[in-house]
């Protein structure tokens, strides 16, 4: 119960890594608001798990790329949970293509959903955190931000932007007792990655020293560590959760 009675906001919590983060935070006693874009039914099922953990869980439909919707989400969180201690910027999308075939729209959409969203939610959350002189912000980047990946120039640019944003804001907010860190997941089994065929998956496993694809829970546990006081002396860090893939 490392997070008993803490209050968290998780973007993109209806599926995959975000859903595992919601449950891991809840299992540690944290009350959670999570956002989703269109998965209303999945969101409802997650809310129904709250009693099992003895915490409050609320879903909220909001486009992470839209600043006004981010502000609305933060106001909803303050109203439902009575405050905000932890922000996890997890929502993200891919629109992969080689640069020569990548449209301007696919570039803009990925930057908006993956990078501008982090600005939106961090800016909207920082006021209450500064006021209470406490906050933990965890951004979900990607290991490809550290090493590049063909076919993902838009995605990699967005995730590398998240790392630069994390370090700058960490320096700005350290004196207010707000820690800002990032995780850089490797290949994690979710809807986002299930498009690959078995041969492609095998090729990826061969690049991972621990010889397995990661689970959403592998990431959620590290996010929970960064959201807890166990990581009070870490800020501006990027922690790869990749089975050793990018070392
Ligand atoms: P996923 O299974 O596709 O789930 C994405 C989540 O984000 C869903 O809850 C989705 O909501 C939400 N979302 C997407 N765009 C949104 C928007 N504009 N506004 C609000 N919510 C939005 O993805 P995932 O694999 O769990 O990835 C989660 C994060 O980890 C992403 O930032 C991703 O880039 C990062 N990551 C993933 C991997 C991997 O291997 N899977 C590796 C490195 C980093 P709906 O359900 O309503 O669509």
Structure characterization notes:
The protein is of the alpha/beta class and 247 residues long. The chain contains 9 helices and 7 strands; from the N terminus they run βαβααβαβαβααβααβ. The chain has a 7-stranded parallel beta sheet with strand order 3-2-1-4-5-6-7, with helices on both faces. α5 links the parallel β4 (86-89) and β5. The two termini are 32 Å apart. The mean pLDDT is 97. Residues 11-18, 35-39, 63-65, 90-93, 113, 140, 142, 185, 187-188, 190-193 line the site of NADP nicotinamide-adenine-dinucleotide phosphate (NAP).
The largest pleated sheet is described as: 7 strands, parallel
pLDDT < 50 stretches? none
SSE order, as H and E? EHEHHEHEHEHHEHHE
Task: Give the overall shape, derived from the CA principal axes.
Answer: globular
Q: What fraction of residues sit in β-strands? A: 5-15%
Report the total helices: 9
Secondary structure: number of strands: 7
Straight-line distance between termini:
32 Å
Quaternary structure:
single chain
Ions, cofactors and other ligands present here are: NADP nicotinamide-adenine-dinucleotide phosphate
Main structural class: alpha/beta
Give the strand line-up of the largest sheet: 3-2-1-4-5-6-7
User: Which percent bin holds the helix content?
Assistant: 40-55%
**Rg, alpha carbons:** 17 Å
Mean pLDDT: 97
């Amino acid at each position: 119960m490392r997070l008993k009675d803490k209050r968290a906001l998780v973007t993109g919590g209806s599926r995959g890594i975000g859903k595992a983060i919601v449950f891991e935070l809840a299992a540690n006693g944290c009350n959670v608001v999570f956002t989703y874009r269109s998965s209303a039914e999945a969101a409802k099922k997650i809310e129904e798990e709250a009693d099992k953990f003895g915490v409050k869980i609320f879903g909220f439909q909001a486009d992470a790329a839209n600043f006004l919707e981010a502000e609305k989400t933060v106001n909803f969180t303050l109203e439902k949970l009575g405050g905000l201690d932890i922000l996890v910027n997890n929502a993200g999308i891919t629109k992969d293509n080689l640069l020569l075939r990548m449209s301007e729209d696919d570039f803009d959409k990925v930057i908006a959903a993956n990078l501008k969203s982090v600005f939106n939610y961090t800016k909207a959350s920082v006021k209450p955190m500064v006021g209470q002189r406490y906050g933990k912000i965890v951004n979900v980047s990607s290991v490809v931000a550290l090493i590049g990946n063909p076919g993902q120039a838009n995605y990699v640019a967005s995730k590398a932007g998240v790392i630069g944003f994390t370090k700058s804001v960490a320096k700005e907010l350290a004196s207010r007792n707000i820690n800002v860190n990032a995780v850089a997941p490797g290949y994690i089994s979710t809807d986002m990655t299930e498009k690959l065929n078995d041969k492609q998956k095998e090729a990826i496993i061969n690049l991972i020293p621990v010889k397995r694809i990661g689970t959403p829970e592998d990431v959620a546990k590290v996010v929970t560590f960064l959201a807890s006081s166990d990581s009070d002396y870490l800020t501006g860090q990027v922690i790869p959760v990749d089975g050793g893939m990018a070392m």
